[in-house]
Design goal:
By secondary structure, this protein is an alpha/beta fold. The chain has one domain (about 55-230): Rossmann fold. It is about 35% helix and about 15% strand. The chain has 8 helices and 5 strands. The chain has helices at about 5-20, 30-35, 70-85, 120-130, 145-155, 180-195, 210-215, 220-230; strands at about 55-60, 85-90, 130-140, 165-170, 200-205. Strand 4 (about 165-170), helix 6 (about 180-195) and strand 5 (about 200-205) form a beta-alpha-beta unit. It is globular, with a radius of gyration of 17 Å. One of its GO terms (molecular function) is oxidoreductase activity. It comes from Succiniclasticum ruminis DSM 9236.
């Protein structure tokens, strides 16, 4: 199936799937709550997303700081998910040998990729086999970090195989204005629609420009609760 045909096939039903997903709104405050669409409310019953099934979860981290603010959200989400019995694989893109998609189309959207790096060797099969993908990023110029965007672009080699997963977004930023996460969320929303993912929640860490700032906020606990409630 070529790219044009694939887009025709996936586009029709994707919006319905996105709008009907079981979401967990983990953004607090009146201004911030409006930024994160949700269908399930701030709290979810344990097992509500997995229906009691043990999930295989891939956590993609895009921060170049091992003890950074978004890394803490990943830590807490993983802690909660593992406490609930789920299997988690973490990929720290900034500390792996990864390369950007060349757009050569040798994979035909169904692999293998001509680039033999950590994405090919360690990650791509985990993405194919998983039930859920969690994207974790610091906000860089109102979007994903280059490290995690590199991984997202490489989804191309297994596009159809990475479709129809559950997903979530966790991000942190220095500023806390109304526009802070708008562009990032639009990108994520479009990715969810195109990949026919089910968005199960997001944690948007406004005003978290330092480790001490996020440690004193509610966001790490929100990430833990989402993981635990899966």
């Amino acid at each position: 199936m070529d790219r044009r045909e694939f887009l025709k096939v996936t586009g029709a039903g994707a919006l319905t799937l996105f709008l009907s997903g079981c979401g967990i709104n983990a953004v607090s405050g009146d201004k911030k709550a409006g930024a994160a669409p949700s269908a399930g409310g701030a709290e979810a019953k344990p097992g509500g997303v997995s229906n009691g099934k043990k999930l295989k979860i891939v956590v993609l981290c895009g921060s170049p700081h091992k003890a950074g603010t978004s890394a803490l959200l990943a830590d807490k989400f993983i802690e909660g998910a593992q406490a609930a019995g789920h299997e988690v694989f973490r990929f720290n893109a900034a500390f792996e040998d990864i390369n950007p998609c060349r757009g050569c189309d040798a994979c035909g959207m169904n692999g293998p990729c001509v680039i033999q790096d950590a994405i090919s060797a360690k990650l791509i099969q985990k993405l194919v086999d998983c039930d859920m993908v969690a994207l974790v990023t610091p906000l860089y110029y109102y979007g994903f970090s280059a490290q995690i965007k590199t991984v997202i672009d490489r989804f191309y080699s297994r596009t159809s195989a990475i479709h129809r997963k559950k997903s979530m977004l966790m991000a942190t930023a220095w500023n806390s204005s109304d526009i802070t996460f708008n562009a990032l969320q639009e990108h994520y929303n479009t990715l969810v629609r195109y990949m026919e993912w089910q968005d199960v929640g997001r944690v948007l860490g406004y005003g978290c420009g330092s480790r001490s700032a996020i440690e004193g906020s509610e966001f790490p606990e929100q990430a833990f609760r989402i993981g635990k409630s899966l």
